[in-house]
Amino acid sequence: MRKLYSIGEVAKLNNVSIETLRYYDRIGLFTPASVDPTTHYRYYHEKQFFYLDIIKYLKYIDTPLYQIKEIMKKDVAEMLPFFEEQTEKIDKEIAQLRHAQKILDHRKNQIKEQNMLVKQPRGKVYSRFVEGEEQLHLFTDDLTPYGNPDVYMRDLALLLETKESVVDNFYGCVYELKNYQATEEIIYSSIYTSLLKDTPLPEQPTKKTSKKYMPEGQYICICFKWSEACYLAYYKKLYDYIKQHHISTEGMVFEFSLPNRYFSYEEDDFITELRIKMKEEN
Q1: How many angstroms separate the CA atoms of 29 and 116, rounded?
Q2: Which of 190, 219, 240, 259 has its CA 20 to 30 A from that of 172?
Q3: HTH merR-type domain: which residues (predicted)?
Q4: CB-facing half-sphere around the CA of 236: CA atoms within 13 A
């Protein structure tokens, strides 16, 4: 005669709670072998432990209980497509987690760079090494430092989000190195956001956008608290320094701004760095 186990014994032997076993019984997922008609105590036989292990396994891979109930009714051949589907699902989740980890590492590096910029003397020219990075550029022809690049960034955000990625909320602008006499003379040729390595985008995503690489190297820079009123003065200080010291550059200004705080209801507070790549000596 097959030995029967009480619900408490089954719970202890199989590392599940009594409440869980009662719930499984109520929904018809895992019912006892017999129930005492007088006491209503539930009893299970040892052969059922095998099926309880299957339920626990399916729960471990996040299978809903209603789906487990259907699976338990299938034969082995019918279960194969389910497990293949679960494998694909897990592979996708692993890929998403790896991508999320890349985003996190990228953001940590940006915060480190921001902390470095905070320590730089405000309004003084300096040179520093800048790591190279992939960038997604949106071409512009009417945007100035007086404009609002956030609206333009929506085009980049929509493009990245359709690729199951996310836009970097730190962005920059690019324009030519010239002897500007007024801030409104500065016209951004593009705005950009940094991309994670291997972001799945075509080389020319649209007519208005382009994937580019900002090369690593030594850059001549100046940083300051963002201000429309003082922007040109800081730019001219950098421009004059380059001319006075006969520094050869690659001719494009990268404006990069980072927020000092993240409260949307407070006044904007950004630290901005203007950086221009210096030509390498042969």
Answers
A1: 58
A2: 240
A3: 4-74
A4: 10
